[in-house]
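Slide 14.
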Amino acid sequence: MGTDLAKRDGSNAELMEQVIVGGDLSKLTANDRMRYYRAVCESVGLNPLTQPFAYLYFQNKMVLYARKECAEQLRDLRGVTITRLDEHWSPDGDLYTVTAYGSNKAGRTDADKGIVSIGALRGVERANAMMKATTKAKRRLTLSLCGLGMLDESEVEDLVARPIETVMESIPAPSTGEPSTLFATPEDDRVQLVQRARIAGARLNKKRVEEITEKHFAAPKIDYDKADLSALVGLVNDLEQERPA
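Slide 15: predicted structure.
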């Protein structure tokens, strides 16, 4: 699928190679990102209109992660069957692990784990945490059996420690190693992104800023207040990583 994207425009071959090898989707324009999204969906037989994947900015890269709709659709499409669930507690009683075993209609078998920290949880919270471990194990097994090595929504929820918005773009987080939240407050996000773009751009010469801007927007100058947010993410990321001449 990545190869098809690269062939679409020979001038973008180097960029596409960087994305495919490095896994950073922020290097793509908004249009190419959507083409890539559709290509991933088509490769596994999913309907992109149901938004089976979403974007996350994680470890300084924009990546796709699988939403719950993805695992549910794949389970039906690929005939994934969960054959056994095993549970295990760590010696200190903190970690609860569920191992899911299963197969698909092609006869392939696999196993994967879901692990949660129970700690001092009691009652409903404890029960919910244990069910989450089961959900993790089933979804990770489904993705593995279908050849998708990516984060699952239940894992992303742990990473960001808050519910995931059901939108298809993300914003870069400060360089703390933590993944960003998604566009929960678009206009507030725009204000922060515009400010960062202007600060980063002020460090560089005008020509270089225009070159980077054109890469993301197909124009050397843009109105930040009206620019596509997802493309603005990539612009800010590149501007901040660029070193002054």
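Speaker note: The longest strand covers residues 81-89.
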